[in-house]
DNA sequence: ATATTTTGTCATAATTCTGTAACGCAGCTG
DNA sequence: CAGCTGCGTTACAGAATTATGACAAAATAT
């Protein structure tokens, strides 16, 4: 599965360098030059991770981070702060604002890649696995199969992709828009409520084995697959 | 029966040594001296495994690995990295890039063989065997015969290769494109729907012995041979 | 050279899947 | 409690995808 990363930095040099480096490592890159356009981008596409410059022309990176972490729709997206200075104090404030990690400029491509992978491993532990297992429900990505220990579950293409996505990111809430972007594709125009219907179909398929309770509705925010009961 | 291995290394000594060793162990060897020619080779033939040197003159082995693992066409080919140093850090980066295993130079022929077999066992458990047996259906790769315990099944050449491939990779879904690439050859232009027809012919041939149910359709994804019922 | 198989494509039938709309209930707000 | 918004459900017709049988060309065998 391709990993989307949003880089927010006002210096185009930095943006380009990072984009070049990360593209070569197989990531898909989105870029924004300030907080305002970052928020716009977030409205369209949901990235898997955000690289956020400490200093930005409009809203500071720290404030943006705090704001994102306070928004139910974005709170689960990991953030790595980019900072020019390496003061202890900054680090603390950054992590305080909700950043998951931080890295001081200048940094090497290798270090950046390593940090990103480390953070991703924490936030989407199932992304690369062949078989995702959440609480007894096993999804075989290569075999395109879903089963519990004693029953096989039949899903249509969309329901499979939906469950696959949710299981790859357990315990995270996704809005209908985000699900449409990530599962249907970003340039498709489809009614938001259609997601409800597919959620319904997925739940129905999981009902016989009582796993439908894992698919939870978060009113006003979207849906989530819960790892525990 | 014959397992193809691609060795990518810029030192001809290493290439020759590895080729010699592995040929004697019954593998068929392809060689490339840099990433560019490796990609060219991959355009012609899809090997069953790739041995990749860490350091290459053009694109580094790590980057090539990442690139291959990001390409749907090659992502399933297991990669073993060859590295001169044995630093822990390298190992991590290698596995991070998608390598399935790694081995440090210099290595013994025996160790190389063992690693290759271990990796192949995971990705294609039946590949090397003379007779593949899945759930009572036996396919003799050398004798080009297929039989159940009490009946022999007659297949045309294409159906045989199709069944052979599917039985070598049980419980995995393959898209029509993948099947065309790996059974018909990489640079043949054939209608995708043609695969359906051959699947149909294969099923028909397996019907009398009730083994047609093993060949399953996965809507929107491709076909799969299921090991269990 | 002739008979027999095998192959790739089509056209058509048979299935399965999808996105919407519509209706009703649940939860929150004031 | 009334009103509003969000969500769950169902039904359905149109789309997509797959199954199947027929056929002519190509390849093999006799």
Mean pLDDT across residues of chain A: 86
Our count of helices of chain A gives: 8
Sheet/helix structural class of chain A = alpha/beta
Unreliable stretches covering 5 or more consecutive residues of chain A: none
CATH fold description of the largest domain in chain A: Rossmann fold
Strands of chain A, total number? 12
Overall CATH architecture of the largest domain in chain A:
3-Layer(aba) Sandwich
Number of domains of chain A: 2
Distance between the termini of chain A: 27 Å
Under the CATH scheme, which class of the largest domain in chain A?
Answer: Alpha Beta
The greatest interface here is:
A-B, 15 and 17 residues
Major beta-sheet overview of chain A: 5 strands, parallel
Classified in CATH, the superfamily of the largest domain in chain A is: Response regulator
| Global shape of chain A | elongated
String of helices and strands of chain A: EHEHEHEHEHEEEEHEHHEE
Helix content of chain A: 40-55%
List the quaternary state of the chains: homodimer
What strand order characterises the main sheet of chain A? 2-1-3-4-5
Residue share in β-strands of chain A: 15-25%
């Amino acid at each position: 599965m391709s990993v989307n990363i949003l880089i927010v930095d006002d210096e185009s040099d930095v943006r380009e360098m990072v984009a070049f480096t990360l593209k070569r490592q197989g990531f898909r890159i989105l870029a924004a030059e300030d907080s305002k356009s970052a928020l716009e981008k977030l409205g369209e596409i949901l990235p898997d991770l955000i690289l956020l410059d400490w200093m930005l022309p409009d809203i500071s990176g720290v404030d943006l981070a705090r704001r994102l972490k306070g928004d139910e729709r974005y709170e689960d997206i990991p953030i790595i702060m980019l900072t020019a200075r390496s003061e202890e104090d900054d680090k603390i404030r950054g992590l305080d604002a909700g950043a998951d990690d931080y890295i001081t400029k200048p940094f090497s491509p290798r270090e950046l890649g390593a940090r990103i992978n480390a953070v991703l491993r924490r936030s989407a532990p199932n992304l690369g696995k062949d078989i995702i297992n959440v609480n007894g429900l096993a999804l075989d990505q290569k075999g395109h199969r879903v089963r519990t220990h004693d029953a096989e579950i039949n899903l249509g293409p969309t329901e499979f992709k939906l469950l696959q996505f949710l299981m790859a990111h357990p315990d995270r809430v996704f809005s209908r828009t985000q699900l449409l972007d990530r599962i249907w594709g970003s340039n498709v125009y489809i009614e938001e409520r259609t997601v409800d219907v597919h959620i319904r179909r997925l739940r129905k398929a999981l009902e016989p084995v009582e796993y439908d309770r894992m698919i939870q509705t978060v009113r006003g925010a979207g849906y989530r697959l819960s790892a525990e009961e």
